[in-house]
Amino acid sequence: MQSKNERLMEEAMRYIPGGVNSPVRAFGSIGSCPRFIKRGDKALIWDEEGKEYIDFVGSWGPMILGHNHPAVLEGVTEACKNGLSFGAATAVEIEMAKLVCELVPSIEMVRMVNSGTEAVMSAIRAARGYTRRDKIIKFTGCYHGHSDGLLVKAGSGVMTAGVPDSLGVPKGCTKDTLSAVYNDLDSVREHFMRCGEEIAAVIVEPVAANMGVVEPKPGFLEGLREICDEYGALLIFDEVITGFRLGVDGAQGYYGIRPDLTTFGKIIGAGMPVGAYGGRRDIMEVVAPLGGVYQAGTLSGNPVAMAAGLAQLTVLKENPQYYGELNQKSAVFFKQIQETVRGAGLPWRVNHVGSLGCLYFTGQEVFDYESAKTSDTKAFGNYCNYMINRGVYLAPAQFEAMFVSMAHTKEQLRQTLDVMEQYFSELKKGGMSL
Ligand code: KE4
To answer: Which of 123, 191, 212, 247 gets the most CB atoms within 10 Å of its CB?
Structure first.
């Protein structure tokens, strides 16, 4: 007998590629049927079959306050009553820009767009327009959205130009994208020594949260800052995940590094489609209509989306203690996961930074893409399906982060650990294959 989720997936597959509007949602890497989520509240979500889950995806990061936060709901509801969109300047966009500039010291000017992808694409164009240089350095294992120039084959040789990692991306779009190794400053220096005067920018996830969760080694981010200054290249922090997550001033505040440009998404929209890029005024002044870098968008700065983001950022600004509580709660939780795994005699590794964490199914330390890739994704799939089937909604892919929110209660985290303990003890008794 087909479940409702299976019936919905069958129908979705008829009208939407892969049945989903974003590939990771298809549960392909864990080989099971996606849950069609009907609603969320605080740290919980329910699927169309009425099953309840403790949510550690949180829409891939935006729901730091949990689902349905009253301030966000009220902000959106009130904004809707005035109309959904005008394609004209609105006062709420000024409020939003002012708040982002106030909360993130490196941001002197900011432009709203509709996704993280659009924010990164635009920031790179601004960097190229400002420096009049073409090349960009990114890091293997870091993901910056799906704009052509960034869909570069992972690990393509340090000495060679980027090779497209997707059909439909012409070689010309990636020839100026150079790959370096995360946490390896020498791999960055090699590029600069060879063609430093052609390099417009280095773009980095200050905490790499698209190969699980990989923290920058001490000196890595500082080294990037120094190398960029030495060669006149710009440093772009892609804070689509870490922005307003690690603290109100993101990873740049957490690590004390000042990038030239920063990209945002996710939390800045509180679940509505919002991205943003901003930074030094002299750089942002190259953006149209002020300067010659063209970028536009029908729904950029949409008043309803701004109301959502403004409400969430205001709650975070007015309650700075939330971050201490969230990061402390998360640190205890991720350490307990590590203890649970070790207690079952298993070698797997937990990486965590603030409220981001990842359980890697590998016995190796994970500090870059190559070490992350040693994870046993099949074993992860078995674990992930077990957890989801028992009401713990994890990202259905090994190389995604767990997101803890302010709404997760200690009881829900304890419940999650109990299910993990069941899994690992059954595994140890041989009740399940790896
Ligand atoms: P969006 O275009 O998906 O809003 O943002 C792209 C992006 C840019 N930069 C970073 C660091 C990101 O993590 C992302 C998107 N993150 C993924 C999750 N790892 C979104 C989930 C999905 O693709 O469905």
So the answer is: 123
In this structure, the residue with its CA closest to atom 23 of ligand 1 is 22
Please identify which residue in the block is written with the tokens 């713990």.
392
Could you read off the pLDDT of 63-82 as tens digits, one per residue?
Answer: 999 999 999 999 999 999 99
Ligand 1 centroid – CA 19 distance (Å): 19
What φ, ψ does residue 277 adopt, rounded to 5°?
A: -135, 145
Q: Is the dihedral of CA 6, 9, 10, 11 positive or negative?
A: positive
Sorted by sequence, the CB contacts under 8 Å of residue 127 that are 6+ apart come out as 136, 200, 201, 234, 236, 260, 261, 283
- Cβ atoms of 295 and 84 closer than 8 Å: no
pLDDT in tens, 203-222: 999 999 999 999 999 999 99
Q: How many residues does the chain have?
A: 434
Between helices 303-318 and 321-343, what is the axis angle to 10°? Answer: 80
- What's the whole-model pTM score? 0.97
